[in-house]
Records
---
Amino acid sequence: MKPPGLRLKLTLAYSVILTVLLALSCVAAYYLFESQLEAEITDELADRVEALRGYTHFKNDVPTLIFKENDPEVALFVRTAARYHQIYSLTTGELVSQSTEMQLLGLGLVPNEVRTASQESGPVDIETDDGRLRFLNDRVVSPSGQEYLVQVGISMEPVHFALRRFVRISLILVPFGLVLAATAGWLLTGSALRPVRRIIHAAHEIEVSNLAQRLPLTGSGDELDNLATTFNEVFARLEKAFGELRQLTGSIAHELRTPIAALRGEAEIAMLHAQSVGELKDVLASQLEEFDKLARMIDQLLTLARSEAGEVRFERRSFDISNAIGEVVDTFSLLASARRISLDSEPGKDLIATVDPQWLERVLVNVLDNAIKYTPPGGHVSIRGTLEPDAVRIEVQDSGPGISAEALPHIFERFYRADPSRNKEVEGVGLGLSFAKWIVEQHGGTIHAVSEVNRGTCFTIRFPRSG
Ligand code: ADP
């Protein structure tokens, strides 16, 4: 079964919370309303007791209700107020007068009850066949000093009636309100989640072949817009990574095809035409060079994969960079002289920095290799190590073709090769400088290039000094 969607869950949660809140408010309102009505009816009862006292006169020392019977207003008031009314002598406990309702309901008191009732000052509720009645006791004293208990009652039916009505109205209005609120909640969550549906729809359409597509933004700057922006940033990174991967695959295929074709051609010719072991050895020697190139490239690709996977570990220690300069110069001196390039070096002294010597050498090899391979025969290359207050500086200067101002900002990007037509002659996949930069930065250093077309290029590398 399909799990319930967010819209249904939100609407349900919202409706449940609303039901609980409404139920609690109704219960609270019910009790407030009840106590308010009861307080009002008690006040009304007290008013009646007060008023009836005014109409109580003594005839032969016996309290009697006397009022103008021909005044309809007064007559109505006194009859209503005295509907539940009885008077007892407090001396004897005997009944003096009693309204018909009290008589019919059998609410008369025995002498003991008269005495107890005379002690009660607050209202007393009694359940009767006429419903609940509330009584207040009053005392009157005759001119001769006789005390009487006057009991006045009021029906609580209007309170019950009002409360029953409140419950009935609540039972109709609350479910109606809930249905209305749940429908509104359903519609609101629907419209709030509409951008999510749009994002889902758009995300479904994005595939490797159209990674340039982006999720729609509403421009509202809300959470969903932020989510879409974040996804778009992820897609942009993926697009870039896929682009690089495509470029890498293309470059690898291209770079592998040329040496493999050359190797195959040489092997074919050797098989058909080589007459002696000497000739075969010559072919093998030239093939060894091609194998070296291939091995270098594969090595670069492996390092790239390892660095991407975060597997590369640096073993940093205090190291004199002038030694590394000396070593790379030794390595490249043969190649330089074979290409008729003069290679000068000033390795400097005590260029101590905390580096991983093997990775440092890789940086120097990449930069010096570029200088030599891009500089035409007859040119100069020099490498110099110097000490700065905070850093060890290495400069590699060549008199090569230089790098155009448009290409210069990109040369440290992966797989970037400036001026492809010129670069056709020179082997490379555009990884050397990006590696060099990555390694230098992992050591807390910097690398940058200054170049002038047809005059040459100077790479400056800085590593922080030890201590
Ligand atoms: P590649 O394998 O192409 O040499 P790099 O990352 O080492 O890759 O260099 C990137 C690009 O920078 C090269 O393709 C080249 O166009 C340019 N470049 C690097 N060093 C030099 C240099 N010393 N002189 C001229 N161009 C250079």
---
Amino acid sequence: MFRAACRASIGLWLMLAPACAADAPARSAAEVMDILMWNREPVGGPFALTDQTGQIRTDSDFRGRLMLVYFGFTYCPDVCPTDLQAIALTLDKLGRDADRVQPLFITIDPERDTSARLAEYVPLFHPRLVGLTGSAEAIRKVADAYKVYYAKVPFKDAGDYTVDHTAYIYLMDRDGNYLGFFPPGTSADRMVEIIRPRLAEPAQ
Ligand code: NI
């Protein structure tokens, strides 16, 4: 269903951008956030995307590890870099246990975020961070599955744009099932506190 293009005003939860979305997603940011907050629909699911080395990666490649899944874009001025730094710090604080956690950065701007672009970007944060891109359709599908809102927002000048998006860090269990999300601004210490007990649980 097509909805009005203007994004909902939800303050800190979204990157601030001044215009209306050009290609509006099926559901508004507010609807998507409501679904997540109240656990109204399943979160996550299978994907097949291309990593920063050009290899196809699927969700099943990461079985046996917890997944920290983050959706964003490399041209994001502040929210994405801040959250990716928090993810990197979380891995550092986990020490050797971090081997059993897989951080994933899935772009919601596949037009600009090619594998080559991701190869320049993800190592800035952490050597184990895997960047994933794909076709516009594949990205929309995985974002919908994770209840991620994103919409392109054109700038006034020539052809440039930013992308409005919800910024949650999803925690998935060793079998790829959804455990919960960390809201934007969650500290690395808090993430470690939640992740450590999960790592201590015996594998199913
Ligand atoms: Ni961002």
